[in-house]
Amino acid sequence: MKRIFSIGAFIFLIIATLFGSEVLADRYLQLLLRGNYHLAYEMQSVRARALYSVDNMVQEFQQLEEEYGSYLFIFSTETSVLRGYTVYIFHAQFERGFIDFNVVVDDQGKIDTFVVQPTSQPGAIAEYIDTSKFDEFEITIGEGRYRLPAVITVPKEIDRYPLVILIHDSGALDRDSTIGPNKPFRQIAWGLATQGVAVLRYDKRTFVFGERLSQTSPSIETEVIEDVIKAITAASRIPSVSSIFLAGHGLGGRVAPTIAMRDSRVDGIILMATPSRRELQVIIDKQKYISSLNKGEIGQQTQLLTDYLQIALEGKLPPGAPVLAATAGYYYELDKMSPIETIRELEIPVLIVQGDADFESTVQDYIMFMNALWTKINVYFQLLPGLDHYFMPVEGEISTPDNYYEFRHVDGRLIDTLFSWIYIFD
């Protein structure tokens, strides 16, 4: 056993060397929170081991749970410097309060100091969330080689309820659609469950099986659609579910109409911050906007990239040609899934909701949807002022990528909009 621990400590040292001591501090804290006290103990320096034994760990975390309830999540992290050492401060939300975990890593890649400090952190959890009104259960969606871990958030004391399946934007995203310190999908799930709507969210296939998928040709079918249909199947087997809605964010909203067209078990769809422009055009415009923020003009590398993307946009590249992390064929496949044309054929309710400070899916996209679909009596529109791509409030007219890495909440207006619309059509 000691040999195993020593190998583990060696691996932790490599992690610290390659990725920095913050990763090591986070790993140590996660071991403690999961009750892996012996592994956490082996990560400590000689001095720390003498002061903080496994028995001390067990006692301290038992007392934390007795006083503050179950651990919920880390909502932000900051650093400070004390006597030449960097202190990593992890702000954590528990059921009945807030805790700061202070971790110091020495220059040998060992945990030298660990301090648990109760603190007051107003605003750590959004006001519209009441964790006493719902439960969460870990489940698995799908069968075979691409089974995905998922979680279903279920309102308490309700016999029948609608269920929403959240569909990710582009990228290898976890069930919470984590970006920086923010977890927008979790806030949406908890906000809706507080009001009586169940939510199913899952780790995206590219997040769980990224290395395996990198050796195959990318496809929107395998990246998104197949797993959403598996989630629909899982939801349809729950006796308490009265109706199933798909809520797609960005790319997820682009493909949601196609999925609804194929699967009659879908009772309604929601497009959240979904562009009406073609995907490559969105990427080109985003690159130009970000470049204008940095230098006021497009740099040489950005110009070369946008020129190459323009060639792909015009369909002049072979399907197998590399384009960003995919291929030209991947984007050609997406172009065939026009959300506007598909929605024209749908008879189920459709909600299109957009923040007017979003630089990725813009107000112009929203207007294009309205101009094309305003005569459809089953299509509803909602524009939310001052919100970015993740429906979080920003200062100024248009958001920037830096906003994504500021700790904020999904705005309650989105939760109210989604709930009110779902309640009508459940």
CATH architecture of the largest domain: 3-Layer(aba) Sandwich
Computed CA radius of gyration, to the nearest angstrom: 23 Å
What would you call the structural class?
alpha/beta
What's the average pLDDT?
88
Oligomer: single chain
> What is the straight-line distance between the termini?
56 Å
Q: The CATH topology of the largest domain is what?
A: Rossmann fold
Q: Estimate nothing, just give the exact number of structural domains.
A: 2
Helix proportion: 40-55%
Number of E-type strands: 14
Return the string of H and E elements.
Answer: HHHHHEEEEEEEHEHHHEHEHHEEHHEHEH
| Tally of DSSP helical segments | 16
Q: State the name of the first-level CATH class of the largest domain.
A: Alpha Beta
State the major sheet: 8 strands, mixed
Uncertain parts: 1-19
Structural shape: globular
- Order of neighbouring strands in the sheet with most strands: 5-6-8-7-9-10-13-14
Organism: Mesotoga prima MesG1.Ag.4.2
Protein name: Dipeptidyl aminopeptidase
Pfam families: DUF3887, Hydrolase_4
GO molecular function, one term: carboxylic ester hydrolase activity
